[in-house]
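Supplementary notes for students who missed Thursday's class. We covered one full example, reproduced here. Read the sequence, then the structure, then the short commentary at the end.
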Amino acid sequence: MVAGVDEVGWGAWAGPVSVGVAVVPGNQQIPNGLRDSKDPSDRQREALFDLVTEWCSHWSVGHATHAEIDDWGLKEARRRATRRALDALGVDPDHILVDGATDFVGTGNTTCLVKGDATSVSISAASILAKVVRDGIMRDLSPHFPGYGFKSNKGENSPQHKEALLGQGPSGIHRGSVKLKVKLKDLLVIGSLRHVRPEPTEAPSDYADYSQLSEWVDPDGVTRPSTVTRSSPPGKR
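Structure (token representation):
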């Protein structure tokens, strides 16, 4: 059993880092567009999402929030997001294919594939899953943090995002990383970054699965880590 792994949100200024894991069936036709879609548009990706989730025998997406990235560092947060996704998968893969040159899984049974989303259908499926789920989270968060354009930029660098940072400074879900601080200095933003962040903990208690992306927002407008998973046979949800 081989699983593909891919992550999204590494370079974002706000929101979580998300890791998708996909186990694809070996005896079923690959969904149309998955293998040929090297750089899909948002619309293409959304259309593929339902096909991929029905096609995969097992899949999951794990996350680490902006606050965890601040507390643990981006590399460790990504590793924990990966662990959450694997824990939610429901099976233990014999081997794991990781997109890129860095083994952020660390289970000892991995192979890194540079541009793996273009050569491995399991990585390509994981990429679709992680991207669509994270994009949905950022769209859901957007009304809680108006003006930043999260619905369109998903927390990434964009002219609207830069303009909002100039005008109103960082929000409660912006990351306090050195990279972000440098970017903000380039934009002539003055003052320290503001964050709403929990105390660091080795065993947070709020990692419950969620069924609606809006559950990523608690009453204080802070995102909380979770996983999305489906381990049922294809055709059942």
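Commentary. The beta strands are 2-8, 17-23, 58-64, 95-99, 110-113, 227-230. The first helix runs from residue 42 to 55. If anything here is unclear, bring it to office hours.
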